[in-house]
Specification:
- The structure is a single chain.
- The chain is α/β, with parallel strands linked by helices and 308 residues long.
- The strands form two sheets. A six-stranded parallel beta sheet has the order 3-2-1-4-5-6, sandwiched between helices.
- The chain is elongated, with a radius of gyration of 21 Å.
- 45% of the residues are buried.
- The structure holds nicotinamide-adenine-dinucleotide.
- The site of nicotinamide-adenine-dinucleotide (NAD) has 30 residues, from helix 1, helix 4 and helix 11.
- GO terms for molecular function: 3-hydroxyisobutyrate dehydrogenase activity; NAD binding; NADP binding.
- Belongs to the HIBADH-related family.
- It catalyses: 3-hydroxy-2-methylpropanoate + NAD(+) = 2-methyl-3-oxopropanoate + NADH + H(+).
Length: 308
């Protein structure tokens, strides 16, 4: 008999992920606060339900893909005045079910929800993702999981239906730590790549020629290889499509803020991550329009000199 999943949060990422669970043979009860997202989930074969409580009734798994840690905590642990989430969802999830929170949140949020689940004899993993909306739709996400080895094994059938790579980073919260580290590094090599390309262009080089040289030299990195920030150097990347996301500056800022928060807790020095966060923040607020909704590779525009 097919297993049942409650999917909470069917936005840009969750919509594609839930659709892939349906394709893989799971029965999916879908809940979101936005009617349009519920409708799209129904069209993808999910069963839309009126509240999170109804979604989790009798399920084998609960998957959440929510905007931030405050919302994740309010859904699972309860908080008055937040939509459906005035009662802890943990009170309604079957004890035998495995909970997978795939949202990007602070490790402390995951640990708090994990500890409450544990107190009730329930199973929880944090499983944030790398890869954007396209990877969510294509089922090629990378999952970074925090949880016990047995819960990791139990999570694999669900995660493999939504992703191409599944890693266990450690205990609950460790998935979020891995995600924060990865995205801080991404921010650093994207800003570095934009800076180097601008220096080359300002000194008369063609950015395509410079990119080809660095791709075969020691400056090669993922941003240069897969996501060149200078318009026209690569096809099918946000820079060649007016910096339409992709991965928004606002989401990168959220992840860099989580990195800063983690570094305060562990007393780690992150001068490069801090610089990257400041650069993206300055970029977001530069000029008349809010750049927060642009793809994060638009940091190139921050370096570009205004036309004479
Ligand atoms: P989104 O805003 O498109 O989707 C979030 C959904 O959650 C919305 O549909 C919203 O209505 C719903 N929601 C909010 N509160 C709710 C509640 N109490 N109950 C039920 N539904 C509720 O966001 P997204 O881009 O899908 O991102 C989701 C998560 O994935 C975030 O944590 C984000 O950081 C992470 N992430 C996003 C990307 C990306 O490229 N978009 C990439 C990697 C990770």
């Amino acid at each position: 008999m097919s297993k049942t999943v409650a999917f909470i949060g069917l936005g840009n990422m969750g919509g594609g992920m839930a659709a892939n669970l349906v394709k893989a043979g799971f029965k999916v009860n879908a809940f979101d606060l936005m009617a349009a997202n519920l409708k799209a989930a129904a069209e993808a074969g999910c069963t839309p339900v009126e509240c999170a409580k109804a979604a989790v009734k009798g399920v084998d798994y609960v998957v959440s893909m929510l905007p931030n840690g405050a919302i994740v905590e309010s859904v699972y642990l309860g908080a008055s005045g937040n939509g459906d989430a005035s009662e802890p969802l943990l009170d309604y999830i079957p004890k035998s079910a495995l909970i997978l929170d795939c949202s990007t949140v602070a490790p402390a949020n995951s640990r708090r929800v994990g500890a409450e689940a544990d107190k009730r004899g329930m199973q929880f993993v944090d499983a944030p993702v790398s890869g954007g909306v396209a990877a969510a739709a294509a089922g090629t996400l990378a999952f970074m999981v925090g949880g016990s080895e047995s819960n990791f094994d139990a999570a694999k059938p669900v995660l493999n239906a939504m992703g191409a790579n599944v890693f266990r980073a450690g205990d609950v919260g460790a998935g979020q730590v891995a995600k924060i580290c990865n995205n801080m590094l991404l921010a650093i090599h994207m800003t570095g790549t934009a800076e180097a390309l601008q220096l080359g262009m300002d000194n008369g080089l063609d950015p395509k020629v410079l990119s080809d040289i660095m791709l075969k030299s020691s400056g090669c990195n993922w941003s240069l290889e897969k996501y060149n920030p200078v318009p026209g150097v690569m096809d099918n990347v946000p820079s060649s499509n007016d910096y339409q996301p992709g991965f928004m500056v606002d989401l990168m800022l959220k992840d860099l803020s989580l990195a800063m928060e983690a570094s305060v807790g562990s007393q780690s020095s992150i001068p490069m991550g801090t610089a990257a966060r400041n650069l993206f923040n300055l970029h977001k607020n530069s000029g008349e329009e809010d750049k927060g909704l642009k793809d994060f590779s638009s940091i190139q525009q921050f370096y570009a000199k205004p036309a004479p």
